[in-house]
Amino acid sequence: MSDALRLGVNIDHVATVRNARGGATPDPVRAALMAAAAGANGITAHLREDRRHITDADIARLSAELSIPLNLEMAATDEMLAIALRHRPHAACIVPEKREERTTEGGLDAARHHNHLAPMVSALGAANIRVSLFIEPDPRQIEAALRLGAPVVELHTGRYAELTGEARAIELRRLADAAALAAKNGIEVHAGHGLTYDNVVPVAAIPQVRELNIGHFLIGEAIFVGLEASVQRMRELMDAAR
């Protein structure tokens, strides 16, 4: 595939910094607009059940002010489904969520939770919201996504990011194989979690991957170089990989 690889910038942790002290700054919506100006193709925001970073008001403002697609990360709950249907983001990525975790720790078990997920995938799709399932690079999960009728899967790259040496190479092959299997079955492939300047290129080079969603690293790097520079550098690395 020769299509340019899209970059989705997750602005959750701008909100984390804001919420650490309270008040209105730094503003995640301002960060989203800056990321868009710097070359982001979309903005990702995870509205967690405990509202630890992104809030309902943030989602409302993002929906109103963004000129690029908004990808709402959400748990598979009735509350989050209602919020997604109210705001109608471009996309909704269903992710696993545990209250005690610091960040998403792994992929959704779409195979195990098929019956719970099926009506949510159907409702989101009927509202013209692009549905994505955040899953491990596992054939069983891709087959489950296919049965559910999800048009997109996002492969969890967290394990790849944490490993080194041959173990990382093995995980990269798992990601590549999963991407090929999904694409062969007509599912669009995205990837994300734990990606940095140092590890993004091999994932970006997987030809079936159409979008990377990256947040924590870019926001952290922005402390030192500014958000525009951090997004532009990631964009350069992704483009060079293709």
The tally of strands reads 8
- Shape estimate: globular
Structural class of the secondary elements? alpha/beta
- Stretches where pLDDT is under 50 for at least 5 consecutive residues are none
As a percent range, the share of helical residues equals 40-55%
Roughly how many Å apart are the termini? 9 Å
N to C succession of SSEs? EHHEHEHEHEHEHHEHEHH
In spatial order, strands of the major sheet run 1-2-3-4-5-6-7-8
Helix count, DSSP H or I runs of 4 or more residues: 11
Radius of gyration: 17 Å
Report the major sheet: 8 strands, parallel, barrel
Q: What is the typical, i.e. mean, pLDDT?
A: 95
Proportion of beta-strand residues: 15-25%
Please write out the topology.
Layout: E1 6-10, H1 12-21, H2 28-38, E2 42-46, H3 56-65, E3 70-74, H4 78-87, E4 91-94, H5 114-126, E5 130-135, H6 139-148, E6 152-156, H7 158-162, H8 165-184, E7 188-192, H9 200-204, E8 209-214, H10 216-225, H11 227-241
Helix pairs in contact: 2-3, 2-11, 10-11
Throw out a few tags for this protein.
242 residues, alpha/beta, 8-stranded parallel barrel, 49% helix
Q: Overview of this structure, please?
A:
With 242 residues, the chain is an alpha/beta fold. Helix content is 49%, strand content 17%. The protein is built from 11 helices and 8 strands. It has helices at residues 12-21, 28-38, 56-65, 78-87, 114-126, 139-148, 158-162, 165-184, 200-204, 216-225, 227-241; strands spanning 6-10, 42-46, 70-74, 91-94, 130-135, 152-156, 188-192, 209-214. The chain has an 8-stranded parallel barrel, surrounded by 8 helices. Helix 9 (200-204) links the parallel strand 7 (188-192) and strand 8. Helix 2 packs parallel to helix 3 (56-65), helix 2 (28-38) crosses helix 11 (227-241) and helix 10 (216-225) packs across helix 11. The longest helix has 20 residues, at 165-184. The termini are close together.
